[in-house]
Amino acid sequence: MGCQICMNACPKQAITTHKQPILPGEGVKHAVVDIDEARCNFCGICDITCPFGAIKVLQDGRGSDALLVLAKESYPQLVRDIVVDTRKCEKKCVECESVCPLGLIKVSKTGFDGKPVGDVSSLSALGQKRVQVKVDIQREFCPTCRLCEFSCDSNALHVRKIFEGHILVDVGKCLVGCRACVDVCPITGTLTIGEEGRVVVNDQTCTFCGACVNVCPNPEALRVERTRVLHTVVRSGTWNKALERLTSPRDAVKEFKANAAQTRRVLVDTRLKVEAKKKNE
Prior knowledge:
Elements: H1 5-9, E1 15-18, E2 32-35, H2 45-49, H3 68-71, E3 82-84, H4 95-99, E4 105-110, H5 125-129, E5 132-137, H6 147-151, E6 157-159, E7 163-169, H7 180-184, E8 191-193, E9 199-201, H8 211-215, E10 222-229, H9 237-246, H10 249-280
Antiparallel strand pairs: 1-2, 3-6, 4-5, 7-10, 8-9
């Protein structure tokens, strides 16, 4: 997607992005991601942190399961918290499949006899009631934009974002008629052009990847701020430094303080249990 995540996460500054030239009659293209293998130590942090699953680092022919930063628990994995309750799914609905901008959702249906059902409306009322709905999501590639959730009228889908944050647009510096950011945004409808010819942002579906910033002709017109990352538990200086680059020192400190408070609570609870046990003895 030509975003900023791998570049910001890389501890060796081995990853850079470059704008592509705009050819006559064509729209703006994603920025090109370049990896300098002379600087790269093949730690795999870019692989683990990419919300789109676009980078794969192999060690001895093995994938992410062989990465030392995971084996040593010095770096967390992104959490894609996606919950689907197919019991609530409307039998005829395939809306989540239709709206997914990356084509990662496949809805399939089977009858009471276990055979695939194509046209649910062709079945009797009882047959429709017995239809079983299955929703397959390629989670490793899902950036958790929540478009599927917002399109689900039956409240069967719930998604938590990997990255939370804000997109800030300086209207005075946003070029009228420019649609570079709109052209490269991977999530349909997140960036649109408003009535005044300037970009309008929908924070609800934004993944805060930064692909838009990489192609903006005026670097001061558009800014992405990531404030939180949903990840597995980890206590490591490697992650702390990456978190500062992905968010900011201020937002990273918030997580560090929250983790410290949680540690203190665990220690206090443990101590109280030990003291209670001694009294009972």
